């Protein structure tokens, strides 16, 4: 590490001295614009090179979970990690010719003005007659520490519709896509009803609201929002809001082993994720709920395709593939595939609560454990010989994965 710091310092010495020299020129009012232009150009190129080099070294130094080997980690945990974060079937890479360069993301991140322009709107942009507690909560909607539980209490268990409405209004997406407020309200009510269907402790409307807010925070704080079109922002927020719609509170493996209706419909492939998508898009078949009714055919096709890709990627079994593909793109300075980047972002938001303040993380963990033991109870009622117990650390596909997302 010390060696790395020394090399970086050495590389940076020339641009630092050039910057100092330019400062001196300016202070002494002896400005040679051509020289300053050349020096700035040189400095920017060198900083970019150091940055990319540093990113590459960080990526190379990370251990692959598949190769996780440590005396301190029990073999059951290692096995679980490997089985949870990998899958046997690789999905093909696609649309490589459409990827924007990573450097363009870096440039986009630097363009911070957009944030101020978009978010100078008043917090009361949300539904007009909101209680003070809701308005108070929404003041923190751009923060990582946002308290979604407080929002849910303040809004009488309507965190999802309150938050989605607020974000759509803030991004001005309701104007852009000509979404009628009454239609949006109807759609969000139906969405919340779907999340309440199985009365899950964890996979409920509060989790959906949490993931939507976290995704918004990631887009905003990283500057990625500058890189996206309004349609892509809309698709991202929509995907986050629907990503666990009508979740049954059980894992994909539970569906597969019990030969559930969903497993039969979706042929054991990303069973829950396929259902969340299908059921949510089915809501839009009703014109009264179709918030995308005014999109052009092309816009609709692009939106649908992006949402499908993002929600399917919340299946935990695709975790390592996603991480590896992104690492590879960054290392080779390839153009980054937008749907792939957005999918990784939604997946990140979905599993983000361990990085939130303790009070939030602890509450999510308790809810997750409760849901986990509910499934154990169902398994005991059914034939334990047919359904492998989740508490047994297996080397095959264990069921814990779906509890996380
Ligand atoms: Zn989720």
UniProtKB/TrEMBL annotation:
It comes from the Eukaryota. Pfam families: PDEase_I (PF00233), PDEase_I_N (PF08499). The keyword ATP-binding does not apply. It is an enzyme of class 3 (hydrolase). The keyword Hydrolase applies. Residues 126-405 form the PDEase domain. Its EC number is 3.1.4.17. It catalyses: 3',5'-cyclic AMP + H2O = AMP + H(+); a nucleoside 3',5'-cyclic phosphate + H2O = a nucleoside 5'-phosphate + H(+); 3',5'-cyclic GMP + H2O = GMP + H(+). Keywords: cAMP, cGMP, Hydrolase, Metal-binding. Belongs to the cyclic nucleotide phosphodiesterase family. PDE1 subfamily. This is 3',5'-cyclic-nucleotide phosphodiesterase. It comes from Characodon lateralis. The gene is PDE1B.
